[in-house]
Amino acid sequence: MREKIEKLNAEFKHLDAKSSLEHFLKVYRGKIALSSSFGAEDQVLSDMILKIDSDARIFTLDTGRLPQQTYDVMDRTNLKYKTKIRAYFPESRDIEKLYYKQGANGFYDSLENRKECCYVRKIAPLKRALNGVEVWITGLRAEQSQTREEMQMLEWDESNGVIKLNPLILWKESDVWSYIRENGVPYNALHDEGYPSIGCEPCTRATDVGADIRSGRWWWENPEHKECGLHIKETN
Predict the structure, then answer these.
(1) The domain defined by 2-219 carries CATH number 3.10.129.10
(2) What was the pLDDT predicted at 234?
(3) What is the number of other CB atoms lying within 10 angstroms of the CB of residue 121?
(4) CB neighbours (10 Å) of residue 182?
(5) What is the rounded CA–CA span in Å between residue 115 and residue 11?
(6) I need a surface site. Which of 8, 42, 107, 190 has the fewest CB within 10 A?
(7) In the sheet that 86-88 helps form, which strands lie side by side, from edge to edge?
(8) pLDDT tens by residue, 74-90
(9) What integer is the mean pLDDT of 111-140?
(10) Phi and psi at residue 128, in whole multiples of 5°?
């Protein structure tokens, strides 16, 4: 599979985001999906994808701890594109066990606790959401964090057994916002309040102008740990 991914990267490295989406949405129709957190990058991809195929599958992971502004942009997106983005939730029994074990905010206490919380609220629901999917579209960009600098447009996701397509991997933040403005794409109001990256409400805060894009996520942890586990690059 890794050889196939290398060949695909060589073949598609010169294609822009829209062209790569057109190809994969056609070839993998019915077996391809975008996971959206309703951040700026995912909104760009939703706009591109739904203009190519209005029936394309887009889903979100509702952790139960999202900001109200995320639900607001979710509604505006569904209305604008006349679509219904499906939400996947954590299992109630898993949440009950998590609360019993570490309390409502135990993720602040240790990296182990935080990763367990992310697993219950994000990773386990993702595995259900990707059932039957062969290509997983994401809004990852290389400049977002040091954990993503080496990622390519196409990756093999070993843990989920899918090809991961990152059409915006080489985009700059300015590219994202230019697209949003030029195409009238709905976006999360928290971006206007200094939130470059938005996740769960208790794990996200505004950042200073010019700060690292992901510095507002899990700000109490070291930079090399700032992933929830959804996008950990496999290494040999």
Answers:
(1) no
(2) 47
(3) 25
(4) 8
(5) 36
(6) 8
(7) 86-88, 57-61, 32-35, 135-137, 162-165, 154-157
(8) 999 999 999 999 999 99
(9) 96
(10) -70, -40
For residues 209 and 95, give the distance between their C-alpha atoms in angstroms, rounded to a whole number.
35
Percent of the chain's residues with pLDDT above 70: 92
Of 63, 81, 87, 42, the C-alpha closest to 187 is: 42
- Distance (Å, rounded) from C-alpha 188 to C-alpha 40? 7
Residue type, 95: I
Region of poorest pLDDT, from 147-151, 170-174, 201-205: 147-151
Question: Where do the domains of the chain lie?
Answer: 2-219
* Token representation of residue 46: 């939703």
Which entry of 117, 118, 200, 228 is annotated as an active-site residue?
A: 228
Amino acid at the residue 85? I
Q: Quote the tokens at residue 236.
A: 């040999």
Q: At 8, which amino acid appears?
A: L
Kindly report, residue by residue over 89-100, the tens digit of the pLDDT. Answer: 999 999 999 999
- Residue 203 catalytic? no
Tokens of 191: 């971006």
Per-residue pLDDT at 149: 65
Strands 154-157 and 135-137: unpaired
Closest CA to 73 of 196, 187, 179, 191: 187
DSSP H/E element including 198: none
CB within 8 Å of 107: residues ≥ 6 apart:
113, 114, 116, 117, 118, 202, 203
Confidence (pLDDT) at 236: 38
